[in-house]
UniProtKB/TrEMBL annotation:
Protein name per the record: Beta-glucosidase
Originating species: unidentified microorganism
GO biological-process terms attached to the record: carbohydrate metabolic process
Sorted UniProt keywords: Hydrolase
Signal peptide range: none
Keyword Nucleus listed: no
One Pfam family here: Fn3-like
Length: 761
């Protein structure tokens, strides 16, 4: 079908037809206008597989969806630190969508992991906005390369499930811009998702679905978004206000209720019909973009995608501990696989992203042909493991050269719809791990979880492999990694605190009854732990390998730049071990002077690259840093701004291991507006070179007032009371009006007003 002239098409529609286009036909389809030949189009839950419902639809999956392939969830794919790998995965998802006639896959979900407790963390990428943005952009590019749309979600500040449909995320402007917006911004600017899904929650008291600042000012005018905005399912509060704000499509169908409200508002003069037309135009542009490029004859080879899912999962796994090189295991040794997840793995989260898999492969099945025995060890549905289960596991462990315990979080512990109440694994599994480790010193734990867990047994096991939620072929991937067919190369996309109470949002997370306050501000994840110099269980970016890497020779293309320029940082990485492996080079930027006029993180991720190296091979990896790498959000100008000074550039393999460091001086080309008044303090004025020149006579006068006259005798007590440091401090913190109080009557109000006029110019 060729794309018609959309504006002419809309001009032929009745107001009722136009209003009808702005809500769904049912759970998964946009409305058609049969009279004019406008087709319906179908969307489907994602983002790591298809949850297409052919017959009756529902949001959370009570009704079955078609058989499909479940790739690793975002919690896992972010650990790959490999956008190219994820783009390929996106291409596979796009092929599946074309085969099934799906116009938009609902994802990726790019909300930041503010707390380990968020029930939907398994579907989110990271605590870091830069990593999140890069991974989301790659997935979107991959899916949309197949002429299938994506719906990046949930815009914005949807960082909890608790009261998610009514709660207000109360957050300051700087934190929103530096932490919670950048992933959306990067994806929109670099990949142009066809649609954006707004979140349920309020943002500083205003529902996202009716927030013109969010949906129009920022998303469209500032970032240049070109597609349509849809609601999360049931996220519309006031439909007419939503149209005014820029919410194009309400999902699912409202049974005509909200359509009538739009018609009534237009006829009452409360809603401009041109806004309704604009919403229709944006929706139809996407509907016809898919229709023009639909290829239902696209093959969908599920078996091939099953193997691809295994390859992706293997590259995402993070080796957290490998004491005494317990891994990789020897295929000739007797190995005990213990734990229900070894046979029936947990590989995806609960809720709207749950895939009806056409097949699954657990580790026991994948290890067929090896000398592997299996003991169940625990019942995933029960918190208490029967003594006979543990006894069976211990007996199996004692007979084996090594024991591998497959553990993690049950479905009931993390799901869409509610948050976790703690960071612990089931006590039955902790007890099992302790018992097996006591029976066999060569114990390895493989974890299946969508977010961090506490590890009270960490000192008693030799190995820990974090598999996250690795998709339907996770068992194949685990066996490949455990036995050395794949060298693990994943790195943590989030910090693992020792205990929940260490998390920076701990005191403020959840919020009762109407909102949650983001009081930790920009200090989430490693930004907080670094600033506090606080120990964590495992740091952001951490990941071991079966080989070793050496980082050296960090050099910069320039020692000094303006903020309109770029600087290139180059690092040499070498494989110093005996196996081929993949290194993840990470680059962090911080203020060498600790940020003079703002409280800032010690360092922030601004670049990463994954490189595969043969033993002895070395390679140069380069990163180009522009203004945004050095800038912070300045609320005075509501824009990104670089404070002139020295910045550190550090490189290594995690936020806690950065052996290379260099410094670059960056000069700001943006002069902040001067808004000094009589209550401004001298220290702030003196930091402005131009204002300092104007103020010099007054400063000299005040310094004299606070300094003893050398010609006069000063008692010892007086000399001790007023030191030079105290005099300087008194001046620094004194408001400008102090010249009236301490100037000996030599400064008048008129002189003060003239001085302020001059320094503000």
């Amino acid at each position: 079908m060729n794309k018609p002239d959309i504006q002419k098409l809309i001009a032929q529609m009745t107001l009722e037809e136009k209003a009808g286009l702005l809500s769904g036909l049912d759970f998964w389809h946009t409305k058609p206008v049969e009279r004019l030949g406008v087709p319906k189009s179908m969307v489907s839950d994602g983002p790591h597989g298809l949850r297409k419902q052919d017959e009756e639809g529902d949001h959370l999956g009570i009704n079955d969806s078609i058989k499909a392939v479940c790739f690793p969830a975002a919690s896992a794919t972010a650990a790959s630190f490999d956008p190219a790998l994820i783009e390929k995965m996106g291409e596979a998802l796009g092929d599946a969508c074309q085969h099934e006639g799906l116009s938009v896959l609902l994802g990726p979900a790019v909300n930041i992991k503010r707390s380990p407790l968020c029930g939907r963390n398994f579907e989110y990428f990271s605590e870091d906005p830069y990593l999140t943005g890069k991974m989301a952009t790659a997935l979107i590019k991959g899916i949309q390369s197949r002429n299938v749309g994506t719906s990046i979600k949930h815009f914005a500040l949807n960082n909890q499930e608790h009261r998610r449909m009514s709660s207000s995320s109360d957050c300051d402007e700087q934190t929103i811009r530096e932490i919670y917006f950048p992933a959306f911004e990067m994806a929109v600017k670099e990949a142009q998702p066809w649609t954006v899904m707004c979140s349920y929650n309020r943002i500083n008291g205003v529902y996202a679905s009716e927030n013109p600042w969010l949906l129009t000012d920022v998303l469209r005018k500032e970032w240049g978004f070109e597609g349509y905005v849809m609601s999360d399912w049931g996220a519309v509060a006031d439909r007419v206000e939503g149209v005014k704000a820029g919410l194009d499509l309400e999902m699912p169908a409202s049974g005509g209720v909200n359509d009538r409200k739009i018609v009534e508002a237009v006829r009452a003069g409360k809603l401009d019909e041109k806004l309704v037309d604009l919403c229709c135009e944006r929706i139809l542009n996407i509907v016809y973009r898919f229709v023009e490029n639909a290829k239902k004859d696209t093959p969908w080879d599920m078996e091939a995608q099953h193997l691809q899912a295994a390859d992706v999962a293997a590259d995402c796994m993070v080796l957290l501990k490998n004491e005494g090189d317990i891994l990789p295991l020897n295929k000739e040794d007797e190995i005990a696989f213990i734990g229900e997840f070894a046979q029936k793995p947990r590989f995806q989260g609960g809720g709207s992203s749950h895939i009806n898999c056409f097949k699954t492969t657990g580790a026991v099945e994948a290890a067929a042909g090896l000398k592997v025995t299996y003991a169940r060890g625990y019942d995933v549905a029960a918190d208490d493991a029967p003594a006979e289960m543990i006894a069976e596991a211990v007996a199996a462990a004692k007979k084996a050269k090594a024991a591998v315990v497959f553990a993690g979080l049950p479905d009931s512990y993390e799901s869409e719809g509610y948050d976790r109440s703690h960071m612990r694994m089931p006590e039955s599994q902790n007890r099992l791990i302790e018992a097996v480790a006591e029976a066999n010193p060569n114990t390895v734990v493989v974890l299946h979880n969508g977010s961090p867990v506490e590890m009270p047994w960490i000192g008693k096991v030799k190995g820990v492999l974090e598999a996250y939620l690795g998709g339907q072929a996770v068992g194949l991937a685990e066996v490949k990694v455990l036995f050395g067919d794949v060298n693990p190369s994943g790195h943590l996309p989030e910090s693992f605190p020792i205990q929940l109470e260490d998390n920076p949002s701990f005191l403020f997370y959840g919020g009762e009854p109407r909102g949650t306050e983001y009081r930790e501000g920009i200090f989430i994840g490693y930004r907080y732990y670094d600033k506090k110099k606080m120990k964590v269980l495992f740091p952001f970016g951490f990941g071991l390998s079966y080989t070793t890497f050496e980082y050296s020779n960090l050099r910069l293309s320039a020692d000094s730049i303006k903020d309109t320029d770029t600087v290139t940082a180059t690092v040499t990485v070498k494989n110093t071990g005996r196996r081929a492996g993949k290194a993840v080079v990470q680059l962090y930027v911080g203020d060498a002077e600790g940020y003079r006029n703002a409280i800032r993180p010690v360092r922030e991720l601004k670049g990463f690259e994954k490189v595969e190296l043969a033993p002895g091979e070395s390679r140069d990896v380069s990163f180009t840093l522009c203004k945004r790498a050095f800038a912070r959000w300045n609320t005075a100008i509501h824009d990104w701004w670089v404070e002139s000074g020295d910045f550190t550039i550090e490189a290594g393999d995690s936020v806690a291991n950065l052996p290379l460091k260099a410094t670059v001086k960056v000069e700001s080309t943006v002069e902040l507006p001067r808004n000094f008044d009589t209550n401004s303090i001298f220290m702030d004025v003196m930091q402005d070179p131009k204002a300092l020149g104007v103020m010099k006579p007054f400063i000299d006068q005040l310094m004299a007032a606070f300094s003893p006259d050398p010609a006069e005798a000063v008692s010892e007590a007086a000399g001790e009371a007023i030191s030079e440091d105290m005099g300087a401090a008194m001046l620094n913190y004194m408001p400008l009006r102090g010249v009236l109080s301490f100037g000996g009557g030599k400064v008048s109000d008129e002189m003060m007003a003239e001085m302020l006029r001059r320094i503000n110019e």
